[in-house]
Design a protein that fits this description.
Strand order of the largest sheet: 2-1-3-4-5-6
Mean pLDDT: 92
Distance between the termini: 15 Å
Number of helices: 13
Number of strands: 11
Radius of gyration: 21 Å
Order of helices and strands: EHHEHHHEHEHEEEHHEHEHEEHH
Oligomer: single chain
Helix content: 25-40%
Number of domains: 2
Shape: globular
Strand content: 5-15%
Length: 351
């Protein structure tokens, strides 16, 4: 299978650190790992390549998320980017994939132009638009023109789009080891100060190894939805979720019970809910959680008053280890870039 991977992006963003886009980049990584040189980045996505990271590490440190987890990993291959227009005319590729860069989410004119170019020689079933916007809205006219994959997919659009999510390279997976923290020291915040100011103070990790080490040593690691406060149909996906899974920690996903069914469809949501029901787990909030009652804490991460703790007198360590192993199995089957790319290809072929 040959895929032309052509992000919908303004040329001015290609050659600087604004190029990073988690949905675009994690899917491309997986496709390149599966298909090798048959996954052609139509313009060279320099931020994905190891050679470039070695040459200009300071640029990678300025990428979104400090360049952690998915950037500068791919080996250079002999990629044929010559005469792409002629190749399109001759239907050299089997599929055209058009991921929308986050800076162009609502640039309908540009998106339509990319689709129109692809449709000059390809059928709608052979062209796939990948919408990684963290808002749930879909332009239905655009979605009707080709295959449509949507992160933050909700029931309203289930008949015109297929779900897709972030993922993480399998090579970032750490071995399951001993853990010294009950909860991760880093507490994410999806709102802005003053209510989240104390959480932003925990964003101290400048080196990727230190960041992963913190998660790998934590039995539970905080994560949550992000985006606008009170908007339950958006902002559910975050690379942080997958970094926690890859590290071998169990996500303490504060509000996972509110996640719409088609958002994070391949994420271990039910396992996260089970994790929150293990006895003796106290997440560090006093405002809306009574640990004497069965159930889970469901709410904003900004209500975490202090780092949580585990009461060893109540805690069943074997139950935790069994669950941790289930999370690891689910992660390797569903949430690596390679597995997400396989899912994506299977959906394309199913048309």
């Amino acid at each position: 299978m040959k895929i032309l991977y052509l992000p919908v992006i303004h040329p001015s963003s290609i050659h600087n650190t604004a190029i990073a886009d988690y949905q675009t980049d994690t899917l491309f990584y997986g496709l390149r790992k599966l298909l090798g040189e048959d996954a052609v980045d139509g313009y060279r996505m320099w931020h994905m390549y190891k050679k470039d990271k070695e040459k200009m590490p300071e640029a990678f440190g300025n990428l979104w998320g400090k360049g952690f987890s998915c950037y500068g990993l791919l080996e250079e291959q002999k990629i044929d980017r010559d005469d792409i227009e002629a190749k399109l005319e001759n239907r050299f590729y089997d599929y055209i994939v058009l991921p929308i860069h986050h800076s162009e989410n609502q640039n309908h004119g540009l998106i339509n132009a990319y689709i129109s170019t692809a449709l000059e020689n390809y059928s709608p079933s052979e062209v796939a638009l990948v919408d990684g916007w963290d808002r749930s809205e879909i332009n239905t006219e655009i979605a009707s023109r080709c295959r449509y994959f949507k992160r933050e997919l909700i029931e309203k659009y289930k008949n015109i789009a297929a779900p897709i999510s972030f993922s993480i390279p399998k090579e970032k997976t750490l071995e399951l080891g001993d853990q010294e923290f009950d909860f991760s020291p880093l507490i994410p915040a999806f709102s802005t100060p003053p209510e989240a100011a104390k959480h932003f103070e925990t964003y101290i990790y400048e080196e990727e190894d230190d960041y992963y080490d913190m998660y790998s040593k934590s039995r539970f690691s905080y994560t949550c939805k992000k985006g606008r406060h009170g908007e339950m149909n958006e902002g559910w996906d975050a690379l942080r979720h997958y970094e926690i899974l890859a590290s071998g920690s169990v996500p303490f996903f504060t509000d996972i019970e509110k996640c719409p069914p088609l958002c994070l469809e391949r994420f271990p949501k039910e396992l996260c809910i089970r994790a929150k029901k293990i006895k003796g787990v106290y997440p560090g909030t006093k405002s809306r959680y009574n640990p004497s009652q069965l159930g889970t804490y469901i709410g904003s991460s900004t209500e975490i008053d202090s780092t949580g703790h585990i009461d060893e007198n109540e805690f069943d360590s074997q139950e935790y280890e069994d669950l941790r192993n289930e999370v690891r199995v689910h992660f390797l089957k569903n949430n690596t870039c390679e597995q997400t790319a396989k899912y994506f290809i299977d959906r394309l072929r199913a048309s």
